[in-house]
Amino acid sequence: MSTDHGTEEFRIYIVRLRDRADWVAKVNAGDEIAQLCLWAASKWRLAIATEHSPCQCCDRPLSIADKPQAFIVFVPTAPDPEKVEASAGGVCSECSEHDDRWIVDQGVHRTGMSLAGVRPGDRIN
After folding, report:
1. Which of 23, 65, 71, 92 has its CA 20 to 30 A from that of 47?
2. Please, are residues 53 and 47 in contact by the beta-carbon 8 Å criterion?
3. Is residue 96 within a helix (H) or strand (E), and if so which, with residue range?
4. What is the pLDDT of residue 77?
5. Sign of the torsion formed by the C-alpha atoms of 59, 15, 77 and 46
6. Is the pLDDT of residue 29 over 90?
7. What is the pTM of this model?
8. Cβ distance 10 to 36 under 8 Å?
9. Is residue 113 within 8 Å of 4, Cβ to Cβ?
């Protein structure tokens, strides 16, 4: 799924805690997108120790004690892959019960982004 924010486009990935082993296996197999996604989620978890962060979908406050069950990860589709830096937002346990499409719709809406036109081959990752 793609979004645009101004002139920058993003690919969106949903990383769920229950699928962590699959994501780690992808990283171990050399999947760069999986590596970016797990890096962004890890960066978010480190930041939550010192910063307030709401659920990406409903604005419910998240904390170290209330670990997100999913992350929505935005990976810019930059022309220079060496300069790509992904960002993640935590998804609370209640919102993470929804399907990926719902999380994408809510997360994109709350970031102020708009969904770019769907292109052939686009899918929620």
Report:
1. 23
2. yes
3. none
4. 78
5. positive
6. yes
7. 0.78
8. no
9. yes
